[in-house]
Amino acid sequence: MEEPVEISDVQARLQRLWKGTLIVAVAGGYVSIVALLLLHHGWQPALLALFLIVLSQFFRYIANDVDRIGWDLSEQRQGDGVGDQTASYQGRLLRLLIGLAQLQNLALIGQAYLLADIGRAAATAVGLVLIEFLYWQIRKVNRQVEFEQASYGFRDRGMLSDGPESIRPSDKAKQDKLNRKLDTLSKMAEAGEISQDAYEKARDKHRVRSVMADDGRR
Fold it and tell me: Rounded to whole angstroms, how far apart are CA atoms 214 and 218?
């Protein structure tokens, strides 16, 4: 079995920026659908479409957490019966939530057909397929960055803006990030860029902050 390739801080940052770009593109696609309905058919169809989109986002929000649990299981499974049963339940729940989100897409396509014609419904379907492709890309990036938060080019605020549970980085991601920092400090100490005493102080400081942050979230 191949060893996983460690993602450097720069690579992780670029992947998080790509994840943020994908999320903005998804939001832009949904806004375009609502805006076109508002322009061509009035506020009532646009409001209904907005409701369906928001409802689908609730299902996707929960599915994101379920997906992360599945990723954790794939990293930690022991291969026993209980693990297999849990993984099977996680997979069924994830498929159910994704299916519920797809129902809102079908409702949007049906709405376009009732308001206009088959051509408008087909155009809506193509747009929603493209959005689903973007969601699939987001899911791939989530695994590459171990479910770290998306970045939008702004300065990270750390613990003050960790956000809700489903977009917080996983425990493994946080530990990997800490290990990368400590490894960088260790190399600086070996190269003589900082003293051994400064390295040990910085190492202990990072470890204490990591433990305090974990305790604060419990």
Answer: 7
C-alpha 170/C-alpha 168 separation (Å) is 6
| Cα–Cα distance, 158 to 156 (Å, whole number) | 6
Q: Which of 212, 217, 214 is nearest to 174 (CA)?
A: 214
pLDDT tens track for 109-148: 999 999 988 989 999 999 999 999 999 999 999 888 878 8
158-167 long-range CB contacts below 8 Å, 24 or more apart?
Answer: 159/213, 159/216, 162/217, 165/65, 166/61, 166/62, 166/64, 166/65, 166/68, 167/64
Under 8 Å between Cβ of 58 and 133:
no
> Please, which contacts does 181-187 make with residues 24 or more away whose CB atoms are closer than 8 Å?
181/206, 182/206
Q: How many CA atoms lie within 13 A of 186 on its CB side?
A: 7
Question: What predicted TM-score, i.e. pTM, was given to this entire model?
Answer: 0.67
pLDDT in tens, 25-38: 999 999 999 999 99
- What is the C-alpha separation between 2 and 156, in angstroms, rounded? 33
Whole-angstrom distance, CA of residue 57 vs CA of residue 63? 9
Strands (E), 74-175: none
The answer to whether 95 touches 108, Cβ cutoff 8 Å, is no
